[in-house]
Task: structure prediction
Amino acid sequence: MGHEKATPDSAHYRCVGVGVGPANLSLASLLHSRPEVRNLFIDRKESFGWHDSQQIPGTTLQVSMFKDLVSLSDPKSPFSFLAYLHDQGRVYHFLNAQFDDVPRLEFRNYLAWASRRNENIVFGEVVEEVGFDGVFTVRTDRRTVTADNIVVGVGNQPWVPVQGRRHLGATQFHVNDFMTSARNLGGKRVVVVGGGQSGAEAFSDLISRSGAELPRRVSWISRRRNYFPIDDSPFTNDYFMPDHSDYFYSLGAEARAAFNAQHILTSDGISESTLRDVYQRIYVHRFVEGNPDLVGLHPNREVVGVEAGAAGDWGITVRHNDKPDALEHFEADVVVWATGFRPAAMDFLAPIAHRLERHGDELRIDEDYAVCWDGPADRSIFVQNAARGQRGLADPNLSLNAWRSQRIADRLCGVRSDEQLASFIEWSTKTGTNVPWGA
Ligand SMILES: Cc1cc2nc3c(=O)[nH]c(=O)nc-3n(C[C@H](O)[C@H](O)[C@H](O)COP(=O)(O)OP(=O)(O)OC[C@H]3O[C@@H](n4cnc5c(N)ncnc54)[C@H](O)[C@@H]3O)c2cc1C
Result:
């Protein structure tokens, strides 16, 4: 019983963070220079990790390196990516390497470095229950502490559709387990399901293997009509600015939902460099190395059934979106589900869950990411990366990490930092003002 293990700890904090991924690590980094805001951040992992079992070799960050833990809010912070490079003595080497994008593993190493330099962060401890009795009581598997405020940053969990969920195991797995599970696939038939960045990276890795490690066939199924790129162009990137996040927050539920559906590729599309790699690999296999049967590309289709075959393989039934009556069948030895992530459960909030307002399947937040609830106004539960429906597609992304953390830090400190200049674009209607035509 967790209750018996927990020992009382007289420690009281201004802020306790649950989870230490990039979101709460950003806040912990910003608060590090504010000793008056006594804080503790707790993560259940034994040590820092960032999607470690999905660190596919050669993958890169999908955002600018300035979108690190702190720079966009506090460029003088000792927790920036540049500070990391400098601390490691490799700042010139990094420049001279002329990376088009930061290697994802290097960014992960930076995050781990930032977590090690912060004595307010602990690993290997699970938050099991958060209650409230004038202050928050945070019970972990080791102790109980109290806090004026809680910041939940538990991220997302791998998600597999029901067709695959019941078969998960050694030969059907989520792409999140790719580095540990996608081994010894030489000569096998592999199906990758999912047409986003993770699916593309898995597919690219599989068809890039050499010699005896190369699968016999790799098929790539996607619900989208084609393998679409992420839109990384200038005006689109203005969606990932603070003032657009605030504009989005001001919209009605219907407009928000329509926006997220319509502009999904601004966050969930595939990097052009990955698409180019995949296309070039296919060209070489087919026309240069004479291996025309390696690759199967099947977009615009949905997996509707998965059955175990007699020989320990899998039979996959797929429906074409334009011809729903014509079902197709694939045989596979291994299925990789690159079907995305969903917000992680927050079961530890159960003791106070009835006091928290909801907005669809999210907790309703105010403009500072504090959950609306019936408790005192000076006691808050903030949520990071759990409000895509209210804050838009930027919420799970690294782009606004530092800014969102600054908003929360400001609220904890009772101040409001200056914002950067607004977008060139007027997102909102200025009711009652004349827009000068031709001015
Ligand atoms: C492979 C991959 C690559 C990505 N690359 C990019 C990119 O290039 N650019 C970009 O903008 N976005 C990227 N993202 C999206 C996003 O940046 C990441 O998902 C990011 O990790 C989200 O950070 P987070 O802190 O919200 O959650 P997470 O990183 O998931 O961290 C949550 C933490 O909470 C801990 N936790 C959960 N429950 C408890 C509990 N009860 N007690 C204690 N600890 C708990 C977990 O152990 C975990 O460490 C990527 C996502 C993936 C999957």
Confidence is low (pLDDT under 50) at residues 1-8. The pocket of flavin-adenine dinucleotide is lined by residues 18-24, 42-45, 50-51, 54, 61-63, 126-127, 153-156, 198, 344, 348, 384-385, 396-399 (CB under 6 Å).
